[in-house]
Structure formats: C-alpha cells, structure tokens
C-alpha cells in the first residue's frame, strides 16, 4: 500500500469574491514506503501547495489524501498537528529553526509535542545531532551556526519522532554546493539505511536526478515521471 496516496486532488484559492485560482488540478500521486521521490516544476507550478497538502499543513479543496492508511479528510483539524508530528519530518530552504534556542532544544521540540520525557528527549536529540555531525554544537544558537550547520540541525529535528517520511522543500536552496552536497548525502543515507521515504521538492534538475523517481508538475498537474539515478544504482 502507498504511504502517500493522493487521488483527484484539486486546490483552489478564492481571491476576492468572484475570482478563483486552480493551483492543483485533479492531481493523482502515490509514493510507496521507502521511496525517494523528487517533485520538480517551475516556479508557480504548485509545488509548495502540494507540499502543504502532503505535509497536512493544508487540506485540498477536492479529492482524497490517504496518509499511511489514514484518510485525512476524516481527521478533525485538532488532530492534524499530532499526525504531522508523527508521520512527517519537515526540512525547509530557510531551516525554520527557533531563534535564541539551542540546537539541542530545537531537535527536542517535536519530542516535546509528542510528550517524550525530558531525559529521553535530551539523549535522543544529542544522538541525532551526532548522526549529522553536529554533536559539538549542541548548545549553540542558530545564529552562531552556518547555513549548512543549521540545515543539519533541521534534519536532526525532522528525525526526532522517527517519522516514516522526510518532506524537504528546496533543502539546499540557501546553501553553497559543498554544504548542499552534504545535505543530499544525509538524505541518501536516511533513504538507504533507515528506509525513510524521502520527498524532495525542488526546481533544481541536477538534485532531482539523484532520486529514484522524478515527478514533474506543471500548472498544478503531473505532466511526467521518469527514473532517476537512485533507481538505477546497482546494490
Ligand atoms: P511553487 O511552489 O511551484 O512555486 P506554489 O504552490 O507556491 O508554486 O504556487 C502556485 C500558485 O498558487 C501560484 O500562482 C501562487 O501565486 C498561488 N498561491 C499559492 N498560495 C496561495 C494563496 N494562499 N492564495 C492565493 N494564491 C496562492
Ligand atoms: P499546530 O499549530 O497546527 O498545532 P504545531 O505548531 O504544534 O502545529 O506543529 C506540529 C508539528 O508540525 C511540529 O513538528 C512542527 O515542526 C510541524 N509544523 C507545523 N507547522 C509547520 C510549519 N509551518 N512549518 C514547519 N513545520 C511545521
């Protein structure tokens, strides 16, 4: 069964009283557990809107989203943040770390929402920081870290509740090529060694090539799909 299953998804924005804009238009997409999929498309094609729906930050206007067997349209709003916290680790272009809060506390945050005890939170957060080679920076604030270091902390945070899905929106967009490479290598590691489902949203074709599946979106519709390098890799 697909981990992410989108069926006839339409998203419309109503602008003023008379105008509506169809941003996602009868979109169908299934991503299986353990896949590494890239979603590519030009600016304005609907990628962020799609990410918000996959990440249950927003609901479609029409259509059904089944996440890990759970029909999201049947989940009340007040339960969505819990589901998000369990199922999805978010990684953003702009890192979205909490300022004036240590790297360690940033990584602890999703576990705080999940009501993990303080002791367990701290030790897991520290272990996660070590896996992204940021253990030595645990007590540092985001403004003391480089962009690449911030993104590694953000990936550790995304992993906090061990979600099956990592949803990354232009994760290397703010980084130079060397640190961007490091971030992509972490995603490959999580995919290959921890069986994480990686959904990478990007307008960078070169990065998208590294996925197993490359899904093209244009004007709110899926217009193509092809295999990427990860699909051809010989084990
Ligand atoms: P992408 O991420 O591919 O650049 P987006 O999903 O951000 O595309 O946007 C797709 C289209 O939807 C754009 O035309 C954008 O202006 C429009 N849009 C996005 N969010 C809103 C909103 N909250 N209200 C109205 N229009 C929006
Ligand atoms: P809500 O405001 O719906 O209660 P929370 O702020 O409690 O949601 O967030 C719950 C989880 O969802 C957290 O793990 C958080 O990282 C993630 N999350 C919610 N909104 C966003 C967002 N805009 N960007 C990134 N992550 C988000």
Automatic annotation (TrEMBL):
<feature type="domain" description="ABC transporter">
    <location>
        <begin position="4"/>
        <end position="235"/>
    </location>
</feature>
<dbReference type="InterPro" id="IPR027417">
    <property type="entry name" value="P-loop_NTPase"/>
</dbReference>
<keyword id="KW-0067">ATP-binding</keyword>
<protein>
    <submittedName>
        <fullName>ABC transporter ATP-binding protein</fullName>
    </submittedName>
</protein>
<dbReference type="InterPro" id="IPR017871">
    <property type="entry name" value="ABC_transporter-like_CS"/>
</dbReference>
<dbReference type="InterPro" id="IPR003439">
    <property type="entry name" value="ABC_transporter-like_ATP-bd"/>
</dbReference>
<dbReference type="GO" id="GO:0022857">
    <property type="term" value="F:transmembrane transporter activity"/>
</dbReference>
<keyword id="KW-0813">Transport</keyword>
<dbReference type="GO" id="GO:0005524">
    <property type="term" value="F:ATP binding"/>
</dbReference>
<dbReference type="InterPro" id="IPR003593">
    <property type="entry name" value="AAA+_ATPase"/>
</dbReference>
<keyword id="KW-0547">Nucleotide-binding</keyword>
<dbReference type="InterPro" id="IPR015854">
    <property type="entry name" value="ABC_transpr_LolD-like"/>
</dbReference>
<dbReference type="GO" id="GO:0016887">
    <property type="term" value="F:ATP hydrolysis activity"/>
</dbReference>
<dbReference type="Pfam" id="PF00005">
    <property type="entry name" value="ABC_tran"/>
</dbReference>
<dbReference type="InterPro" id="IPR017911">
    <property type="entry name" value="MacB-like_ATP-bd"/>
</dbReference>
<dbReference type="GO" id="GO:0005886">
    <property type="term" value="C:plasma membrane"/>
</dbReference>
<dbReference type="GO" id="GO:0098796">
    <property type="term" value="C:membrane protein complex"/>
</dbReference>
């Amino acid at each position: 069964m697909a981990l992410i299953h989108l069926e006839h998804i339409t998203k419309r924005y109503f602008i003023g009283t008379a105008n509506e804009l169809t941003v996602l238009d009868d979109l169908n997409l299934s991503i299986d557990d353990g896949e590494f999929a890239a979603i590519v498309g030009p600016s304005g094609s609907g990628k962020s809107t799609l990410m918000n729906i996959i990440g249950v930050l927003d609901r479609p206007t029409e259509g059904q989203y089944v996440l890990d067997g759970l029909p999201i349209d049947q989940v009340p709003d007040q339960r969505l943040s819990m589901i998000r916290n369990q199922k999805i680790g978010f990684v953003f272009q702009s890192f979205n770390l909490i300022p004036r809060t240590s790297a360690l506390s940033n990584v602890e945050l999703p576990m705080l929402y999940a009501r993990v005890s303080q002791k367990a939170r701290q030790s897991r957060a520290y272990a996660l920081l070590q896996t992204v080679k940021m253990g030595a920076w645990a007590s540092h604030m985001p403004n003391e870290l480089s962009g690449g270091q911030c993104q590694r902390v953000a990936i550790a945070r995304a992993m906090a509740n061990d979600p099956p899905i990592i949803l990354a929106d232009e994760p290397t967009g703010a980084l130079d090529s060397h640190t961007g490479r490091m971030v992509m290598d972490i995603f490959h590691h999580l995919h290959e060694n921890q069986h994480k489902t990686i959904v990478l949203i990007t307008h960078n074709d070169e990065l998208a090539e590294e996925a197993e599946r490359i899904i093209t979106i244009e004007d709110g519709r899926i217009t193509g799909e092809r295999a990427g390098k990860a699909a051809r890799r010989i084990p």
